């Protein structure tokens, strides 16, 4: 599974993004410093492994764009990166992924990995009625898992953008984001702010999906 995700590196590099992948089963998976160790110490064993795998994936993503990074502590649930460094982290089923932007690129950051498909019944938690036409079995149709993952990735990118703190109330759930087709990608943005839209690439990985924001969309749909 790691290999399938890692195969996406060239296409993401072309978009100005570095990809990092790590597995919870890697040997000698130790914290990179005392702050990481303190954050991981109270976690249950499985969560601790996922947390540390996510940090390794983030360092690998940053290294892929030419940036070294030591330990990555956290504030609340969010990672805290040194100045000039940032990455988006996700993990699922023992695999962690991260994306980081190249130093000379002003790109929104957001990724999501979902290796366990969602049931069709989850539709009502992800979509509103005006988005249900996106669902389908044909080449132009998207699965519930793909749409969920795309919105998760977009939410991370939009929450980390300029002025995001002031606008957090605009997105209370994934249903407050509207998804639409954009070639072979999806465009996703807050319903309350149709000009703030990002483009999300969604790739199937085994029975699951990996989603990554690859840029902004200019203007409303």
UniProtKB/TrEMBL annotation:
Ribonucleoprotein in keyword set: no
Residues reported in the UniProt entry to bind CoA: 47, 55, 90-91, 112, 152, 156
Pfam family, one: ACPS
Record key words, sorted: Magnesium, Metal-binding
Top-level taxon of origin: Bacteria
GO CC annotation terms, alphabetical: enterobactin synthetase complex; plasma membrane
Domain 4'-phosphopantetheinyl transferase as annotated: residue spans: 108-165
Record domain 4'-phosphopantetheinyl transferase N-terminal: where: 36-100
Molecular function GO terms recorded: holo-[acyl-carrier-protein] synthase activity; magnesium ion binding
Binding-site residues, Mg(2+): 112, 114
GO BP, sorted A to Z: enterobactin biosynthetic process
Cofactors demanded by this protein: Mg(2+)
InterPro entries: 4-PPantetheinyl_Trfase_dom (IPR008278), 4PPT_N (IPR041354), Enbac_synth_compD-like (IPR003542)
Protein name: Enterobactin synthetase
């Amino acid at each position: 599974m790691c290999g399938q995700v890692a195969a996406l590196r060239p296409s993401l590099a072309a978009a100005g993004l570095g990809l990092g992948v790590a597995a919870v089963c890697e040997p000698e998976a130790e914290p990179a410093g005392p702050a990481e160790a303190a954050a991981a110490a109270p976690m249950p064993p499985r969560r601790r492994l996922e947390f540390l795998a996510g940090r390794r994936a983030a360092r690998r993503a940053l290294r892929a764009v030419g940036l070294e990074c030591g330990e990555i502590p956290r504030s609340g649930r969010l990672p805290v990166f040194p100045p000039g460094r940032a990455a988006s982290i996700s993990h699922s089923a023992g695999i962690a992924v991260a994306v980081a932007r190249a130093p000379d690129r002003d790109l929104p950051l957001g990724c999501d990995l979902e290796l366990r498909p969602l049931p069709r019944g989850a539709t009502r938690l992800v979509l509103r009625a005006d988005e249900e036409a996106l669902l389908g079995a044909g080449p132009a149709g998207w699965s519930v898992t793909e749409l969920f993952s795309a919105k998760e990735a977009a939410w991370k990118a939009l929450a980390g953008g300029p002025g995001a703190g002031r606008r957090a109330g605009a997105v209370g759930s994934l249903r407050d984001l509207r998804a639409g087709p954009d070639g072979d990608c999806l465009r996703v943005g807050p319903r309350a702010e149709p000009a703030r839209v990002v483009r999300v690439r969604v790739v199937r990985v085994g029975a699951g999906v990996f989603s990554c924001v690859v840029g902004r969309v200019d203007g409303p749909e």
